[in-house]
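Rotation project, supervised by the postdoc (A.L.). Task for the rotation student: set up a whole-complex structure prediction and record inputs and outputs verbatim in this book. Inputs entered:
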Amino acid sequence: MARPIHLPDSKLPHVGTTIFTEMSALAAECGALNLSQGFPDFDPPMALRQAVTAAMNEGKNQYAPMAGDVGLRTWIAEDTEHRTQRHYDVNSEITVGAGASSLLFAAIQAWVHPGDEVIVLAPAYDLYQPAIQLAGGSLVVVPLGGTDYHLDLEAIASALTASTRMLILNVPNNPTGSGWSYEDFEALHRLVQDTDIILLSDEVYGPLQHDGRTALSLSSHPALSQRALVAASFGKILHATGWKIGYLLGPSELMSEVRKVHQYDVFSTGAPLQAGIASFLKSPEGKDHLGGLPAFYQGKRDRLLSGLNGSHWNWTPAESGYFQVLDYGRFDDRDDRQVVQEWCRKGAQDGVALIPLSPFYPNGIPEGHSTHRIRVCFAKNEATLDEGIRRLLLLSNPS
Ligand code: PMP
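Outputs recorded:
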């Protein structure tokens, strides 16, 4: 008999299946309407799909350059400079990867050393914590402040130590959609200017702004951008999350180390996708698509919220992104993980899959914050949204 293999301890003993995978699987099992995981239920623009098909037919089927398709990086440089006035060098300061995820992960592996502290703001997207742990760093969780989830600079200041290597910011925030102001930048600048802290700014929802807000990127702050790596995702802005194409911006001395990880992890990604995205974004259809994004998603947020108006659900309208946090504390006082399971199990007729907020808090929901909140993804077509509203109303007003 072969000797059984004795495996070493897990490097990530506390990591299980993510709540997003869990809820999507439960939705499929129960036949519930899936408003949980963050992806659109509509396709990318036709002109984009045609551009990608054309790129394949034109032979763009072998490895793209490690840093990304040159045409795409050129578009990224021009677009970023137009939006933020920050010039990034096409050759050394822009890297395209397998979604923003791969580059956020690479940035953490490249710059976090064993024993370093990394500050993460909660509620937090789930990628950062295991990436920090694999790098040997320690996670320091600082909650966003108040019911509007604002950047709490005093709390961040009191979490800083001589071991703080990195501060991870996710603005607009997933799940809350909260943003920041230029004053926040100034305050952040005062906080870090005499330190060597690297900023990792996850801005994948940046272009999806509501109520006339303008997207504020850390790239637009001349001093902060010198110490910042800024992540963005084409999945979010092109309705193409499954394509997994994202990019990272940053000064060459920060970027060169990230590329060392990227080179041996992803190396390069979807050549025809990158080429097709570049040609689409430079076309009139591409410009119209990007210009129309804020109104497109605000329309969906407003449709959802006006449908819930007058019900027992409670909320602050999301400032940006395609998620809305809803509070059910007025009609149910049970634990958020428990209620979402039960609501999903109502099945094909009335079931709805949602994401509880507690998994976004690695150290638990802080004192004084509501524990009765769920996240709805409103990147859905009108029929799905209307059906979602019907089911959400049924939960708040059972007949
Ligand atoms: N950051 C945040 C906050 C996200 O919500 C997501 C996607 N869910 C990502 C990063 C990953 O983006 P991508 O799909 O481009 O890897």
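Student's summary: The mean pLDDT is 96.
Supervisor addendum: Residues 38, 99-101, 125, 170, 174, 202, 204, 233, 235, 241, 244, 246 surround 4'-deoxy-4'-aminopyridoxal-5'-phosphate (CB under 6 Å).
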